[in-house]
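Slack export, channel: ligand-projects

TW: morning all. Re-posting the request from yesterday since it got buried. We need the structure predicted with the small molecule present, not the apo form. The ligand is flavin-adenine dinucleotide; the SMILES is in the block with the sequence. No rush, but it would help planning for next week.
GE: picking it up
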Amino acid sequence: MAEQYSKEDEIAILDMINKWVENEVRPIAQEYDQADKYPHELVAQMKELGLFGATIGQQYGGLGLPATIYAKIVLKVASAWMAPSGIFNSHLIQASAIERAGTAAQKEHFLPRMASGELRGGIALTEPNAGTDLQAIRATAVRDGDHYILNGTKTWITNSLNGNSLAVLVKTDSSIQPAHKGTSMFIVETKDGQGNFKPGIKVSKLKKMGYRAIDTCEVVFEDCRVPAANLIGEVEGQGFVQALGGLELGRINVAARGAGIALGAMELAVRYAQEREAFGKAIANHQAIQLKLGEMAVQVEAARLLIEQAAAKYDAGERCDMEAGMAKFAGSEAGVFCANEAMRIFGGYSYSVEYDIERYYRDAMLMCIGEGTNEMQRIIIAKQLIERYKI
Ligand SMILES: Cc1cc2nc3c(=O)[nH]c(=O)nc-3n(C[C@H](O)[C@H](O)[C@H](O)COP(=O)(O)OP(=O)(O)OC[C@H]3O[C@@H](n4cnc5c(N)ncnc54)[C@H](O)[C@@H]3O)c2cc1C
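GE: finished. pasting the full token output, ligand included:
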């Protein structure tokens, strides 16, 4: 639950994050991305900074940050390198599902370990045949005494190789209609004390165009035994609602990651445009380049304002699915737009891996796909709009 933070607290937190990003994150981004190498040292620093408990309530050892401050942290990290923001973002989506829907015993058991980073999580919803249409998932959990037996394949699961805990959406009843009423969510601690995957769990890393260095994997459950006590809320049939319940915050997060990419790409472009000369002057003095920079700046600020608006409503406990959808759409599209325009400003050098801009370009599109595709965002916004302007 969000705690009270003063303006001074916010400034101090963001100052600490800015220093960390500039000193530790930005300098290694391009090298680690190119080598697809996991940034273990950043994870250790994230633990020190409290990022694994950023939005977890203080009674469980977290910082209990409001969405307004959290979104600014995510935006700053993503402005230097989007990928590491996924290490704590997906983890916090899992934590938020437990905090919202878990039993008191589950909160006590999981949240302090998640806040410290001892347990590092992710969410396993998507399957090879079902992404947007989550009701079509096929993974199952069948009760067997005081355990459930999980079977099925999840794909594109972030943090599943280097983390040790997943919130897994499965069917506990495949016959019920509507199908979402047969879904349930389990917390699966995937590794034993030695850091090896437990029996019945097989994880294979996927090669990606962007969002590299971070582990995104296929996860196969084969007769995997999970304690019944790990069924979130200890009630079957709530999985879909629990998964979607965190989407407003999830969308604000993705919006901030997209806006971060947009800001980072714009900052690189505005610097390069002043350094690079053509026809006897810096290209920043050519109007065609100024038109690009001007539009990039508007997109960055528009995304920032929509994120702030959605986060403020979220913190006030108000319904904000439309605002979060708008922020997600605007932030992620700003990322794609600004990365694209920056590539043009860098000309041929945009294709060189010596420059960071090509990474922003490869990372940007993912933000239009994750946490509900932008096609779906527009539909959600339109449905809310029709409801609000009903004649
Ligand atoms: C790098 C990466 C990391 C990821 N991390 C995770 C993770 O940690 N956990 C997890 O569970 N998933 C994760 N995902 C999966 C991601 O959430 C899905 O890819 C996303 O939900 C889209 O699902 P899909 O790929 O199956 O596309 P589909 O659902 O097959 O959609 C394909 C296209 O059809 C459109 N479409 C579908 N239905 C409709 C409709 N009703 N109306 C209009 N258009 C529609 C979509 O908008 C899209 O354009 C990750 C994906 C990637 C690429």
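GE: first-pass observations. The chain has twelve helices and nine strands. Residues 21 and 196 are 31 Å apart (CA to CA).
TW: perfect, thank you
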